[in-house]
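Q: Sequence in, structure out?
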Amino acid sequence: APVVPDPAQPALTRFMWIAWVAPLVFFSISEAKANYYLVAVMPFAALHLVLALEKRGFLAGAAAALPGVLVALVSVALWITFGLRAAAVQRLVSIGGMDERQFVLMAFAVATMVALAAAGVAWRVARIGLLAYLMLPALVVAILALVTVAAEPLISTRSLAHFVRDALPGHTVYLYRNFEEQSSLPFYLATPVAVIDSRSSDLYWGNKLRPNDWLITEAQFAEHLPQQKVAVAVMDRQMKDFQAQPWFRYLTGKRRIGDTTLFFN
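A: Exactly. Output:
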């Protein structure tokens, strides 16, 4: 027979506390932090919560439907809020033949129905119980998979790299100011990419440690421009400053891919 952990076992409870609280405290006081640093502690925190609920018998009987009802209520509230406040949305991608607003409203509606269905099964079918709520993460994975495929040009530079290789094979590629947001471009191009007027603190100190020619000023780029074929990737928020440069007029070609525009001569 399978061994079921005893939620009342003190050693297990102490381990769960340490497993998620210690990393949380460490990264909270660290100067270098990002939200994804805590992904590793989420399974421990979730398991700790499950054991605490199991110990108290909180979700026994009709109470097993409570999580699904709460998820459904939150989903309905988000559906109403988004429907009222997002009447006009700039269409950046098409997801399953729908624009962003239509897709989000559809997703909330489906989530509401799935949550209520899971709540009913958890309440009425004892042998399945809370396992019915596995339908919710399965739904989330399906939704995110659709979004990821449709929004790839907005979150990845792979499409940008493919265009450069196919249409501009003889051009030297540059990034304008932003590196972190487009740091995968050198990977897809399989070659280093210089950055014009870099605003990256990490690159600044890395260049101090090991000086190199990959960070160049706008004046240096202006010197290179007449001598070579170039292509510059510019994100939307840098567009105004980029177009104000005196050498901008020499970049007569352009191609927009996601939230990035590639200018080339």
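Residues 100-124 form the longest helix (25 residues).
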